[in-house]
Structure formats: C-alpha cells, structure tokens
Design brief:
This protein has 335 residues and is an alpha/beta fold. Helices cover 31% and strands 32% of the residues. It folds into 2 domains: 2-123 and 287-307, NAD(P)-binding Rossmann-like Domain (Rossmann fold), CATH 3.40.50.720; 139-279 and 318-334, Dihydrodipicolinate Reductase, domain 2 (2-Layer Sandwich), CATH 3.30.360. Residues 7-13, 32-35, 38, 55, 70-73, 75, 79, 93-94, 120, 122, 166 line the site of nicotinamide-adenine-dinucleotide (NAD).
Length: 335
C-alpha cells in the first residue's frame, strides 16, 4: 500500500484526492492546505484522512511515502524540493516549475534520492493519447507535416502565471510524449486585455526541425471550452477532440497533394483527396485516473513514468521560451 499526502486543496486538489482514493493499492493519509477553511469537508467525505495546515506534518510522517503537490505554480519548486529532501516520492502538478533551472534541480535530486518524480501531464495517461501514439507509430497519417492545437475556455485566470504556463503544458506534454522530442525553436505572441499583468491569450508557433510546424492557441477568454488537436499528415488527418464524450478521435482520409508540373516550371499542380472518416473505439476514462494509477505503478515497479522529470523539464523549456518570445514581440527563440 502506497501512502500519499496531498498538498493544496483548492480547485484541483479535490480531484486528485478523489482519484487516488479510488485506487486499491494507494491510500491518502494527509490533505494539507494553508487555507484551513477548505479542509472542512475532508473528514466528512474521507473519514480516514488527516488534515493539516502544516506541510511538515506530512514530511515528518514516516508512514507517508509520497507527496502530491497541487499548489500554485510559483510554489512547486520550493515545496517539491522539501518533499524530495524528506525522501518522499513526488507527484507534481503541471507545469513542473517556473524555470528549466529549477526543473533540472528537482530531477537530479529525485535521481540522487532514488525517488519517483512524476509531473501531472494528465492527458499523456489517457486512452485517447495512447491511441494517437499507436496511430502515429503505424504511419496511418503518412509523414506528419503540421499540428494545430486549440485550448480555450473562460478563465481560470491565474495570479502567478500567464495562460501559456497554465494551458500550454497540456499540448506540449502530449506532443513531447507523442513525438519524443522538444521543438527546436519557438515564437509566441499574446495579450492581456484586462491588464492583469499576465497574458490571458497567446499563440505559440513551434518548429520541430525543418519539416514539422506546430501551432498552439491558448486562451482564458473564450465563451466555450475547446480542447482540440489536429494532426495533418501526408496521407490522412486526425482530429482529437477531448470534449467529445465518445468519438474523441476521428481519422479523416483527406489530404492535399502539391506537385510541380515538370513542363511548366514554377506552376504547381494541387490535388485534394476526400475519403471516409473513421472513429476508433476508445475506452471512456477520466484523465486523472490514468495519471494517478501511473504514479503508484511507477513507485511499485521503480520504473520512471511517461511524464517523468525529464519530460517535465522539457515542457518547462517550451513554456519558458514561449514566454520569453512573447515578451520580445514574437522573436524566435531556440529551445
Ligand atoms: N492537470 C490538470 O489538468 C490541472 C488542472 C487544474 C490545475 N492544475 C494545476 O494544479 C495546481 C493548483 O491549481 P488550482 O487551480 O487548484 O489552484 P488553487 O489556487 O485553486 O489551489 C491551490 C491551493 O494551494 C494552497 N496552497 C498554496 N500554498 C500552499 C502551501 N505552501 N501549503 C499548503 N497549501 C498551499 C492554496 O491555499 C489553495 O487552496 C497548479 O499547478 C495548476 O497548474 C492542473
């Protein structure tokens, strides 16, 4: 049985407690939040869980093997550092830290302490993303040329980070898992229409080597929630719509072909192919169910999970570079 303490019981913490509590081989021992009012419900919902406003209570408990950090992003590094120093396994919310320097430090410390460090790139642990990985591996889409991601909804505006730090880790976490690498260069633009000091909407363009271009649109200023990723290949196109309850993935037998007419130099011959759409069956599962299970499995098997410290560090590299570019009016930044 893996005993886990959860730090941060605001918006996301309760979802983590609920999902970890469902696992047969894990148990939540503590929930900690500096705002004690938020803990009032815990004893009623989970009579065996202890609550505290003092992080040290978790750290000093020898029976608590792992810590889950679901506090604001700017606190991830100092709190994660304390957890690893105390010898706990660490599940840390996305994005792992504010800077690559801090993410590297935690990754090294976890390795030195022989502890599992997992970043909650939630969607990486879903059946839909696993299916896309299988489809890409099979080359059903041909060669990938372009990926277009849209992740928008109304809020939740964060005080300590911009929309890139809040939403882009989902897209780039999934892309890191699917492509196994980071972009080579990034440029981003964005705006803060409400002058909050944090960009509320942003467009990120990422180049993966010479032949793959990715665009990610992230926004807190949308009346509707959109969670789509479109993968364009030389043979077919794939739509991943996480808001769809049953048909999350659709593969369209559509493509564009452009060939140069050898007789008329510089003249392009453009063809459009339109065929059937198929939607593979995907088991229905809450994203967080897979992530929480992956963490416990990693501790039990002593094997790094898919979204480990290295993946977390790479994703922080992308969002740090995107924010740097945004502050320099879209200048291209090498990642
Ligand atoms: N994986 C996902 O899909 C997903 C979704 C939402 C949020 N998140 C992440 O979860 C984290 C928390 O986000 P949120 O929306 O729940 O924020 P929130 O502000 O609603 O909750 C954070 C909680 O942490 C508490 N806290 C702050 N400092 C603390 C400390 N030192 N010790 C104990 N408690 C402390 C606050 O009192 C608050 O209750 C962020 O990193 C965010 O990016 C992830």
């Amino acid at each position: 049985m893996i005993n886990i303490g959860v730090l941060g019981y605001g918006y996301w913490g309760p979802n983590l407690v609920r999902n970890f509590s469902r696992l047969t081989n894990a148990r939540i021992t503590w929930v900690c939040d500096i705002d004690q009012k938020l803990l009032a419900d815990v004893p009623r919902l989970y009579p065996t869980i202890q609550t505290t406003a003092v992080f040290d209570d978790l750290l000093k408990d020898p029976d608590t093997h792992a810590v889950v950090i679901a506090t604001p992003v700017s606190t991830h590094f100092p709190l994660g550092h304390l957890a690893l120093k105390a010898g706990k396994h660490l599940f840390i919310e996305k994005p792992m830290t504010m800077t690559v320097k801090d993410a590297r430090f935690l990754t090294k410390l976890a390795r030195k302490k022989r502890r599992i460090l997992m970043v909650d790139h939630t969607f990486v642990h879903t059946p839909a993303v696993e299916k896309i990985k299988e489809i890409l591996r099979s080359k059903t889409l041909g060669t990938l040329q372009y990926i277009d991601c849209v992740r928008t909804n109304l809020g939740l505006l964060q005080k300590d980070t911009n929309v890139i730090y809040d939403l882009a880790p989902h897209d780039f976490g999934v892309l890191h898992y699917l492509l196994g690498r980071n972009p080579t260069s990034i440029s981003a633009t964005g705006a803060s229409p409400h002058n909050t000091g944090q960009e509320e909407v942003a467009h990120i363009s990422a180049q993966y080597g010479k032949n793959l271009f990715v665009h990610s649109h992230v926004s807190w200023l949308s009346p509707i929630k959109i969670r789509t990723m479109i993968f364009v290949g030389t043979e077919k196109m794939l739509l991943y719509d996480d808001m769809e309850s049953s048909e999350k993935i659709k593969i369209y037998d559509k493509s564009v072909s452009v060939t140069k007419n050898p007789k008329l130099l510089r003249q392009l011959r453009i063809g459009y192919r339109t065929g059937e759409m198929v939607s593979p069956h995907i088991p229905v599962a809450e994203g967080l169910a897979g992530a929480t299970l992956a963490f416990v499995k990693a501790i039990e098997t002593k094997k790094a999970p898919a979204s480990d410290g290295r993946a977390g560090t790479d994703v922080v590299g992308v969002i740090e570079a995107a924010t740097k570019s945004l502050r320099q009016k879209g200048k291209s930044i090498r990642v």
